[in-house]
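[Discussion] Sanity-checking designs against the backbone

I'm trying to build intuition for which residues belong where. Below is a structure token string of 172 positions. I'd appreciate it if someone posts a full sequence so I can compare it with mine line by line.
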């Protein structure tokens, strides 16, 4: 099954800058069977674990997160770039390779004690994922785990979110 999914990931050299090998998931998204399989493989380890909410970061986390939330009969919470959410927000800034970025979540999106799963397409350096974890923690959510379609092992993002459990479907 894993090899089947990997057939739908396109490698693009030197994108978005020279020296980077980009893992393009758009062929996977266009394949009904590969998309369905990827969602099942993301959701399966968390079935029966009492997940109340799935959190997904803009934008591909929305695609995978809402589908996983449906599989788990859970709600979905948006994490967005600044200025995109209309209600009272909390913010978390994090470091990038050259600078900082910020993510936001509605301040009332998680009730203390709710079991939360964070879902995204890729775990790379871990900055975005760590900010999502910090937002969940700040609102009192119980982080049940992190699920990603692709983990880029050489970038060691898992260390940034440790000791939280990470489930990755594909590893490169």
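Best answer:
Here's mine. Compare freely.
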């Amino acid at each position: 099954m894993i090899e089947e999914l990997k057939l739908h990931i396109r490698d693009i050299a030197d994108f978005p800058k020279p020296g980077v090998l980009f893992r393009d998931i758009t062929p996977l998204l266009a394949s009904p069977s590969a998309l369905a399989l990827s969602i099942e493989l993301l959701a399966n380890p968390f079935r029966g674990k009492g997940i109340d909410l799935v959190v997904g970061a803009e934008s591909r986390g929305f695609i995978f997160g809402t589908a996983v939330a449906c599989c788990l009969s859970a709600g979905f919470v948006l994490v967005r770039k600044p200025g995109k959410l209309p209600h009272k927000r909390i913010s978390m800034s994090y470091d990038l390779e050259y600078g900082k970025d910020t993510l936001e979540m509605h301040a009332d999106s998680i009730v203390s004690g709710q079991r939360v799963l964070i879902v995204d397409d890729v775990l790379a350096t871990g900055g975005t994922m760590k900010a999502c974890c910090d937002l969940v923690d700040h609102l009192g959510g119980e982080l049940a785990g992190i699920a990603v379609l692709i983990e880029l092992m050489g970038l060691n993002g898992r260390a940034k979110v440790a000791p939280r459990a990470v489930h990755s479907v594909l590893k490169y």
